Amino acid sequence: MIENNIKYDSNGLVPVVIQDSSSLDVLMLGYMNTEAYKLTVETGIVTFFSRSKKRIWVKGETSNNKLLVDNIYLDCDGDTILISASPLGPTCHKGTVTCFNDENMTNKTFLYQLENIIDERIKGDSTNSYVKELNQKGVKEIAKKVTEEAGETSISAVTNDGRLVDESADLLFHLAVLLKNQSLTFNDVIDELKKRNVSQ
Asked: By C-alpha distance, which of 146, 22, 176 is closest to 86?
């Protein structure tokens, strides 16, 4: 049992590194005492002990950007915990994906951020949003755009016109809109690829 091997410091705390399960980005660093650790295990939601407020706090208790626990690991010395988690939104209170420089985030995290932007545009009130307008037209129109962009990407590759990256970006963008329209994400696609990789 990990719990029995945790070495808390003189203040009864242990540092906890939070890592995105999908992108592997380091999201934040927090601290837990025994109560916070037990609550994290019991609820499946990352719970810390706030050193400034001197109390237990659930990450995302006000923003609802909670961290769902996937796995918990203890380092070789027993004095640091690593939690692999699925974030329900930006982790940092400043609205960024991580509490560290977002310029260091992986490309996969950028796709996650793109999905959030698309979701915001769809739910927003703007009348000038291309994403909102396309989504309102429905799945058939979105699918047509994906087909169109896929064709242009293929043509660009065959003709070597120097636009392959541009066309590929258009294709990925419209695919993201299609997935969002169908309540799916790139993570769902990646999970399927993982399954195929294991079976092959």
From this structure: 22
